[in-house]
Amino acid sequence: MIDLRSDTVTKPSPAMRQAMAVADVGDDVFGEDPMVNKLQEQIAALFGKESALFVPSGTMGNEICINCHTRPGDEVICETGCHIFNYESGAAPFLSGVQMRPVVGERGVMTAEQVEQVISPPQDHFPQSALITVENTHNGAGGTIFPLDELKRLFELAQNRRLKLHLDGARIWNASVATDTPLKDYGHHCDSISVCFSKGLGAPVGSVIAGSRQLIAEAHRLRKIYGGGMRQVGILAAGALHALEHNLNRLKDDHNHARILAQALSNMPGIEIDLDTVQTNIVIFDIAKTGLNVLQFLEQLKERGVLVVPFGGTRIRAVTHLDVTKDDVETAVEIFKDVFD
Ligand SMILES: *Cc1c(COP(=O)(O)O)cnc(C)c1O
Asked: Global pTM?
């Protein structure tokens, strides 16, 4: 099966499993797991932050940061298609008592001007704008890159208006590799960042959040409250460390593979695809004009050995990752052609 549903479907390689098997461990709630400590130190250093914290999922990482930056009744300004607003089961209002204020960006990118327009004046009528969230790369928009210049402008705005900025960097690795941007440049233009090891980097589990020492101290308490305090979790941190060392630069391959797939799809009759959104490892396309029904289409692909996911209406998402080779992509292209014929 060529599984293009998500970059979360990757399985740990034998070498990664070996690194995990021999990992030195300790009780991480006591701060005594050497692999977790090493991973946290490495991520803090990579992003130029004072401190970092291992958490079980990207969602928990985002939600802990939101809670740290806000008080109940505050408003969080985000892009309308973002993960925090759409794919975290309503966690921000549920866990932090905040209201989300979505702004419609272009290909996932909202500008500082747009955000400035919705920051509320300091009057008792209005929810107080406390936090801006940015997603890079932007999953819903097709793995699009949030330009560093716009992030800088947003962070400047946040600082001038006394808001915080959280960067949902589940796929920041893809953005960094695609644009040759050092990870520190992202870290320097946000108050907190969350990153995932279980997407393109190919580890089975784990995320890390990074920020100031004070923020991470508060996050440590919240991680316990949210049920995310884990014990000999160095086994997982070792997988993440292995992923960082071996699977970061190869993301370029995934980006090339996505490009090959997208280009081929754009030449198939009836397929609508905005090639400008194919900037990293995600390909979103629309099959409305093929006349095929989405569920039937998914079934026909599956029968021939390709898995993708529906992505709203007649849209489909395909994601390349380290368990998909160039040959797999070429085979998938032939299968798509076959189904559309
Ligand atoms: C995957 C993802 C997350 C975190 O998801 P989990 O499944 O909770 O790890 C957060 N933000 C974005 C943009 C993502 O793609």
From this structure: 0.97
Looking at ligand 1, which residue's alpha carbon is closest to its atom 14? 170
pLDDT tens per residue across span 223-232: 999 999 999 9
Q: 8-56: per-residue pLDDT in tens? A: 999 999 999 999 999 999 999 999 999 999 999 999 999 999 999 999 9
Please, are residues 265 and 271 in contact by the beta-carbon 8 Å criterion? yes
Ligand 1-lining residues (CB < 6 angstroms): 57-59, 62, 83, 135, 139, 168, 170-171, 196, 199, 207
Amino acid at 230: M
Place of tokens 């080779």: 325
Cis amide bond preceding 8, omega within 30: no
CATH of 12-246, one of 3.40.640.10, 3.40.718.10, 3.40.50.150, 3.40.50.620: 3.40.640.10
Domain boundaries, given as residue ranges, for the chain: 12-246, 250-340
| Atom number in ligand 1 closest to CA 8 | 1
CATH 3.90.1150.10 fits 250-340, yes or no: yes
